[in-house]
Amino acid sequence: MNYDEARRLLIERFDKRNFIIEEHIRSIFNIKPIDEPTSQNLLSLLDEFNSHLRSLKNLGRPTDYWDDLIIYLIISKLDFNSKTKWRDAAPNTALPTFNDISKFIINRSHSLEVQSADISFAPKWNKNIDHSQKFKQSNPSRHNSRSIFNNTFHVNRFTCIHCKKDGHTIMRCHQFLALPVNDRIQTVKTLKSCENCLNPSHSLANCPNQTLCRYCQQKHHSLLHVSNNNALSFQTQPIQSNMQSNSVSQTSSSAAHISEAASFSVTSPNYIMLATAEVLVACENNKFITARAMLDSGSQVNFITESLASRLGIHAKSSPIKIRGIGCSSLASTGSSTITIKSKLNNFSRSCKVQILNKISNNQPCFNINISEWVIPSNLSLAVKKGSFINLKPLNCLLALTYFLSFYLMVK
Questions:
Q1: Are residues 270 and 220 in the same domain?
Q2: Which of 142, 146, 45 is nearest to 101 (CA)?
Q3: Together in a domain, 190 and 240
């Protein structure tokens, strides 16, 4: 089997755009209705719709013309009071658009946040209040000039810890909401705020809030939820600088599902093991060190981490690119270089150009997996001993489509 034939078979087997489109549409219809009208629930609902619509648009679907359908679906997920307010606020003379209902949800969430603010009314009654009536009857003139009780109001003004402006919290901050998810997480860490409720007064370990992430039910705010697909598909754009202009524009397929379809399913129905391999990478002194690579058929760009580049002793060329992932999250590479990768099983080796990132993905897998009962094909050589565990480890290399196919052909 030659290279072109193998590539054709892989694309025919895994590149099923119809399946992905159906999954996104099914997910939209299956979005959970709001059971409690809170600011966070409304924003999470809007985030879910936006996420799927952006993905469908990237797949070439005409989502700009779906406003009527999407508005109907969003309304069907709202609580009763929000539905009523939307019908009162919706324009009567013109058909509402998706932007209209998006603005309504943002304003509605802001109103709910203000209503649930910690505004306490604490009347401090005079100790002699029980005798005030007697005092008034016996001393009418003095009573008029004396205050029987004092009322004290404690109002917490909203000041955003991110943009430092009054009138809203970080959860309603347009600057914060405009950030990619990874940047939001870094911002919260920099501000030393709780990752669960975004409150700067305590840490995650001491958070009294019992609300969990709407998407994964873990203890972090829904605005900080990172999809497992964020690290799988990249859309890259060159970064322009005064010194030089990188004219290469590299765009990868948005079909991150190829990596998922080509991977193993484990006991957890919500977790997919990504295809990874241990490879040898040549250092500057021509010695080889072991690297752990993700084989990503959804990318056209190869990556290594800064820590691996440091171990290899290579020097990055100043040709960074801007990388965009699912959900429009973005980051920039720190440069590029060329490395030589060699198989640990035979003499197969290839030279490839890589972009350098601070981090490629979280540990893969994200928990230890017992593979003692797996049925492993006899022609596959695993990087772990038979009958043992696959342990969570960091990834320091990502090999794109061309090298993904080369490694599969090498195994064949």
A1: no
A2: 45
A3: no
Helices 39-58, 98-115: crossing angle, 10 deg rounding? 160
Query: Would you say 327 and 227 are in contact if contact means Cβ atoms under 8 Å apart?
Result: yes
- My answer on whether 398 and 249 are in the same domain is yes
Contact 298, 259 (CB under 8 A): yes
Mean pLDDT, residues 343-364 taken together: 82
Has residue 74 been placed in a domain?
yes
**Does residue 152 belong to any structural domain of this protein?**
no
Supply the DSSP string of 307-359, one letter for each residue: HHHHHHT---BS--EEEE-GGG-EEE--EEEEEEEE-SSSS-EEEEEEEEES-
Beta-strand pair 276-282/335-342: antiparallel
Say how far apart CA 368 and CA 392 lie, in whole Å. 6
pLDDT beyond 50 at 407:
yes
Burial (Cβ within 10 Å: 0-12, 13-18, ≥19) of residue 322:
middle
Residues 177 and 222 sit within 8 Å (Cβ to Cβ): no
User: Which domain does 254 fall in, by range?
Assistant: 231-411
Angle at the Cα of 84 from the Cα atoms of 79 and 86, rounded to 5 degrees:
95
- Assess contact for 233 and 260: CB atoms under 8 A: no
pLDDT score for 70? 93
Question: Which of 253, 294, 290, 256 is closest to 277 using CA atoms?
Answer: 294
| Residues in the chain, overall count | 412
CA distance readout (Å), 207 to 116, 171, 210, 408: 18, 17, 8, 47
Tell me the pLDDT of the chain averaged across its residues: 72
DSSP 8-state code for residue 34: P
Q: Are 309 and 356 in contact (CB under 8 A)?
A: yes
In a domain, 141, yes or no: no
pLDDT at 376: 63
Does residue 329 sit in the same domain as residue 265?
A: yes
**In this structure, what token pair is assigned to residue 282?**
């040549």
Is residue 37 in some structural domain? yes
